[in-house]
Amino acid sequence: QIEALTQRMERVEAQIEALTQRMERVEAQIEALTQRMERVEAQIEVHSQILASLMERLDWVVERLDWVVQRLERLEERVGRLEERWGLVHEEAAQNLLPILLRRKGWSVSRVTPLVFDGEVDLIAQVEVGDQKFTVVAEVKGRVIGTKPFEDLLKTITSHQFLMTIRKMGYPEPIVPIVFGMVIYFDAEEHAKQFGVGLYNPHGELVEPPLSFLKGE
Which of 14, 34, 99, 150 has its CA 20 to 30 A from that of 50? Predict the structure, then answer.
C-alpha cells in the first residue's frame, strides 16, 4: 500500500509540475499580451494626440477659410459696384454720343432711351431718314473683343419678348443693330461685317450697319 501510495503521489507531483509549467507559460503569455496592450495603448495615446492636433489645425483652417470667404464676398461686392459705376459711365457716354454720331450721317434722331433687357443695358434710338423710320438698337460695351457682343445683340433683337417690348414703347421697325464700344479690339470690325452689325466707338462709325431696307440702298 505504501508503495502504491508513493507511486500515486509521484504521479500527482508530476501532474502538479506539469500544471505549474503550464501555468508559467500562461503567465508568460499574459505578460506578453499585457506588454503588447501597453504598447497599443501608448500608440493610441500618440494617435489621439496627433488627432487632437489635427482637429485644432482643422478648426483653424475652417476659421481661416470663413475669413477668406467673407473677404472675397466683400471684394466681389466692391468689384460689382465698380463694374456698375464703370458701366453707367459707358452708358451715359454712349447715350450722349450716339445721337451726335448718327446725326453726322444725316440721320434725324427723335429720341434715345436706355433699356435694360436680360440684365444688359442697351440704347434704342428712333431714327428717320427721309420718309423712312426705323429703330437703332445699340449694345453698349466697355470693350469689344471676339464675336460674343455681336452674337448676343442679334439674339436679343430677334427675341419675341424684346420685339414686344419696343413695340409697346412705340419704336418703329425695322431694327438696325449696332455695337457701341469704348475700346475696340483689332478683330471687332471683321466680326461686325461678318454678323451684319454696325460698329461705333466714341470717335465715330467704324462699320456701317445694314441699311438695305432704305430706299435707294
Answer: 34
